[in-house]
Design brief:
It contains 13 helices and 13 strands. By secondary structure, the protein is an alpha+beta fold. Among the domains are: about 240 residues, Rossmann fold; about 120 residues. The strands form 3 sheets. It has a 7-stranded antiparallel sheet with strand order 2-1-4-5-6-8-7, covered by helices on one side. A hairpin with a 2-residue loop joins strand 9 and strand 10. Helix 7 runs antiparallel to helix 9 and helix 12 runs parallel beside helix 13. The chain is rod-shaped. It starts with a strand and ends in a 13-residue tail after the last strand.
Length: about 575
C-alpha cells in the first residue's frame, strides 16, 4: 500500500493514506467564483506523481519549470517492506531509495554528491516488476512489462476508454500478453504468438522487397531461374561429356600447323588449275579458228572487182600466201605444245591435291580424336563457369524455397502453439470461472444484472470483452473498467507479490448514474477492506451521491485530503500552474 505522498516543495500538501478505502476530494466552496474550477487542483497531478516516482515520465504539471528543482516522495510497501522513493523532474535519471534493499536482485548505487542510494529508470522499473508482479529481471521483448501492468492499477485518462487497454495506442500483442498475465491465463501463448507474428512480418517484408527487385541478384524470379537452371544443366553435362572423352596430344599444335599448310597448298593448286583451265580453253578455241587463206579465192575477188593482176604480181601473192601458211602451222604447233603443257600441269597439280587432301584428312582425324592441353584447359574453364552459374542459380532457388518453407513452418508453429494453448486453457478452467464469477458479482451489485467477462481463445490469440445488460445506460463503459479493475485487485490481493493498491481518477465516475456511482464507491470500500488491498480515488464534491448511499455509509470518514478552488494555494501543489 501507499502510506503517503510528499514533496520538499514548501507549499505542497502532503497526503497520508490508510488501509482500504481512501478519497481525495476536490471541493468548490462558497467563496469560489464562477471562473474557478476544480480542474488544476491536483487530482491528476497526484496520480502523475505516483507514476513518476515509479519510473514513469513526468506529465503535465511536473514538466513545469516551477517544479524542476522539487523532489517528490512516495512512502509505500514493496515486497513486505516499507520504502521511501524520491525523484525530481530536474534529475529524473536517478530514483533515490530509502529502505532495506539487501535482498533485491538489482542493488542501488551510491550518489557521490549526496551519499544516497539510487537506481536508474530502467533498473528501477525492472526491480518494481519483480517486487510488484513477480516478473523475472531482464525479460525480452513481447513479454509482460511493469509499465503496462502497473497502468491497470493506476489508470491514466486514456485508460478509461477500454477496460483491457491502458493506452489508446497499446498494441494488440501488449493487450493480449499483459491481460493474460494479470488474469493468470497462460500469457506465454500471447508472447510466443507475437514472436511468430514478428517472424511473419519480417518474412513478408523480405518477400515484398524480393518482388520489387531489390534482391534480384540474391534471389530472382523462380520461373526464370528454373528455365535457366535446365539450360545450364544441359550445357554443363555436354561440357562434362566432352571433357571425359578428350584425349590430349602433345604434338597437337604441330599437327594443326601442318594441316593448315596442306590446306594452303591445296588452295593454291586449286587456284592455279582454275587459271590454267581458262587458258587451256582459250588455246583450244584459237587452234580451231586458225586456217590458210586460198590465193585463188583472193584472185577471184579482185577479178570480180575488175582488176587484172600481172603474172609478176600473182607470183608475189603466192609467196605471201606460202609465208602465211608457214606462220599458221608454226602457231598451231605452239598452241598444241602449250595445250599439252597445261594439261600435264593440271594433271600434276590434281594428283598433288589428291595426295594432300588424303594427308590432311589423316591429320584432321587425329585432331578430331585428340586435342591440345590448351584446348582441354579452355573446355575445363567453360565447364567450371557453367557449374558456378548453375550452383548460383540452385542457391537462389534454395533461398526462394527456404522462404516458402519458413512461411509454412510459421503456419505449422502457429497451429501447434494454438493447440497447446487450448490444452493449457482447459487446465485453467477453474481459474477462468473464478475470474468470470468475480466480475459478474461486481457488475450485478451495480446493475442487478450479471455481467460477463468474455475470455476467448483462437488461433490469433486471446479475445477479451465485457457484456453487461443495459449497456446503453449512461456511463456503463466506465463501470466496465471499474468492475474489471476491481476483479484484478481482488485476484492480485491474494498473491504474495502485488501492487497492493488500485487508484482511480474522478474521470471514471463521469457520466455514471448517481445510483451506480454510489454503488461503485460502496463496492470499492467493501471489496478493498474485505480483500485486503488499498483503493484510492479522487472525487469532485458535486459528484458525491449523498442520497443514494446506504444509511451506514459515511464517505467523509474516508476522505484523506480536501482540495479547494477558493484560493490559489488550495491545490495539492499550493500554487496554480
Amino acid at each position: 500500500m501507499i502510506h503517503s505522498i510528499n514533496s520538499d516543495h514548501k507549499k505542497f500538501k502532503k497526503i497520508e493514506f490508510h488501509e482500504g478505502f481512501n478519497v481525495i476530494l476536490a471541493e468548490r466552496t462558497d467563496k469560489s467564483s464562477q471562473k474557478d474550477s476544480r480542474n488544476g487542483l491536483g487530482k491528476s497531478t497526484m496520480i502523475n506523481i505516483i507514476h513518476f516516482c515509479l519510473g514513469g515520465d513526468p506529465k503535465d504539471a511536473l514538466n513545469n519549470s516551477k517544479l524542476e528543482n522539487s523532489t517528490f516522495t512516495i512512502d509505500l510497501d514493496l515486497g513486505g517492506k516499507r520504502y521511501k522513493i524520491s525523484r525530481s523532474p530536474g534529475n529524473k535519471s536517478q530514483i533515490f531509495i530509502d529502505g532495506d534493499y539487501s535482498d533485491w536482485s538489482i542493488k542501488p548505487k551510491t550518489d557521490i554528491d549526496t551519499g544516497k542510494k539510487f537506481l536508474k529508470k530502467d533498473s528501477w522499473r525492472s526491480m518494481l516488476g519483480e517486487l510488484m508482479f513477480d516478473l523475472p529481471i531482464g525479460l525480452p521483448t513481447f513479454h509482460p512489462s511493469f509499465g503496462s501492468l502497473i497502468s491497470y492499477f493506476i489508470r491514466k485518462h486514456e485508460g478509461f476508454l477500454d477496460a483491457f487497454k491502458q493506452s489508446s495506442s497499446q498494441s494488440v500483442w501488449d493487450v493480449q500478453t499483459n491481460n493474460a498475465y494479470l488474469l493468470d491465463l497462460g500469457w506465454k501463448f500471447a508472447t510466443d504468438l507475437q514472436i511468430l507474428r514478428k517472424r511473419k512480418t519480417d518474412l513478408d517484408a523480405f518477400k515484398r522487397e524480393i518482388n520489387s527487385g531489390k534482391f534480384a541478384g540474391f534471389m530472382g524470379n523462380e520461373g526464370k531461374l528454373e528455365v535457366e537452371k535446365i539450360k545450364l544443366q544441359i550445357q554443363a553435362d555436354r561440357q562434362k561429356e566432352e571433357l571425359d572423352k578428350f584425349q590430349i596430344n602433345n604434338q597437337y599444335e604441330q599437327i594443326e600447323k601442318e594441316a593448315n599448310n596442306i590446306t594452303e597448298i591445296i588452295h593454291n593448286n586449286t587456284n592455279q588449275n582454275v587459271m590454267d583451265k581458262l587458258l587451256l580453253n582459250r588455246y583450244n578455241i584459237s587452234l580451231k579458228e586458225e586456217r590458210v587463206t586460198d590465193i585463188e579465192q583472193v584472185s577471184e575477188i579482185y577479178q570480180e572487182a575488175g582488176i587484172h593482176f600481172s603474172e609478176k604480181i600473182k607470183k608475189t601473192i603466192e609467196e605471201v600466201n606460202n609465208f602465211h601458211i608457214k606462220i599458221i602451222e608454226n602457231r598451231k604447233e605452239f598452241l598444241n605444245s602449250e595445250i599439252r603443257r597445261l594439261e600435264n600441269d593440271i594433271l600434276d597439280r590434281t594428283e598433288i591435291m589428291e595426295q594432300s587432301d588424303k594427308k590432311r584428312s589423316e591429320l584432321m582425324q587425329i585432331l578430331n580424336t585428340e586435342g591440345a592441353l590448351k584446348e582441354y584447359t579452355e573446355i575445363q574453364k567453360n565447364y567450371n563457369n557453367s557449374q558456378s552459374e548453375l550452383n548460383e542459380i540452385k542457391a537462389k532457388l534454395d533461398n526462394l524455397k527456404n522462404i516458402e518453407n519458413k512461411d509454412n513452418q510459421i503456419k505449422i508453429d502457429k497451429q501447434k502453439l494454438y493447440q497447446n494453448a487450448l490444452i493449457d486453457m482447459k487446465e485453467r478452467t477453474e481459474q477462468k470461472n473464478n475470474i468470470i464469477t468475480a466480475f459478474g458479482e461486481f457488475s450485478s451489485s451495480l446493475y442487478n444484472e450479471f455481467g460477463t467477462l468474455l475470455i476467448n481463445l483462437n488461433v490469433n490469440g486471446f479475445e477479451f470483452g465485457i457484456d453487461i445488460p443495459r449497456s446503453s445506460s449512461q456511463g456503463i463503459g466506465n463501470m466496465k473498467v471499474f468492475c474489471y479493475d476491481l476483479t484484478l485487485s481482488k485476484m492480485w490481493s491474494q498473491k504474495q507479490r502485488s501492487p497492493g493498491f488500485t487508484i482511480h481518477d474522478s474521470m471514471i465516475f463521469d457520466g455514471v448514474d448517481e445510483r451506480q456511482r454510489a454503488g461503485a464507491l460502496q463496492l470499492a470500500r467493501t471489496t478493498s477492506e474485505t480483500e485486503g488491498f488499498q483503493y484510492i480515488c479522487t472525487l469532485n464534491s458535486d459528484m458525491i451521491p449523498h442520497r443514494d448511499f446506504d444509511s451506514d455509509f459515511d464517505l467523509q470518514k474516508y476522505v484523506v485530503r480536501i482540495l479547494t478552488d477558493s484560493t490559489d494555494d488550495g491545490g495539492i501543489l499550493g500554487i496554480r500552474i
